[in-house]
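We modelled the chain as a single entity of 235 amino acids. Its sequence is:
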Amino acid sequence: MKKLPKSAAVFVALVATAAVLVVAGEIWRSQSPSWGKLAAFLLFAALGSVMSVKLPGLDSTMSVNLPFILLAAAELSGPEVCGVAVLCAIVQTLRNVHPARPVQFIFNICVMVLSAALAQFLCHFGPITNSAPVVAINLALATAGYFLLNTALVSTVVALADGRGIAKAWERMFLVTFPYYVLSMGLGISASVIGVLANWWTALALIPILFGLYRCYAQYFRANAREQAFATAAH
């Protein structure tokens, strides 16, 4: 990310302020955490965040940690989900080929925290029940909320930083990431429903699936980059 213009810097400051307020509110309402479950989800999310790929044409990366974030939103409290989101953002940012600037590092964390907090709220909005259909609907709503907020915030700062239209930047991000969000929603719902019938430890079964997904995306994006480089050289 290049030096931010004033409008982008103000937007980052607003996002950071919102994230601090959300975390403070979650901590204020929090109860005693479930340390064993939290530690497990932190481990799951860290593994998913390590498997990251650079999005073509964008100064950002995508990790296959979303199914674990969605499951954490369904299983954990607000502060715990925010902690999982912070760890995901840190690991994913550190995995970047090019070191992130402090403002980019902070922005990534804040976006993940706000998106995960919204997902956690939507997961627990409405009747509290372990009914598999209700769990599936809540996870679908959580995924939609996470997707809309995350892509809106990232595309806005990209547009402000690069001087392009926000709608155009969001369209580009939508086309690249939408299939991943749909697949993550399906995996999250499947694991959550199985967890209702069995145990939340079934999330472990997602790891080999997500590794395969990561390898597919990495291969596809590398091939796409080589084709673009070849086309540019041919001209």
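As a brief sanity check on the tokenised model: Confidence is low (pLDDT under 50) at residues 229-235. Strands lie at 52-54, 61-63.
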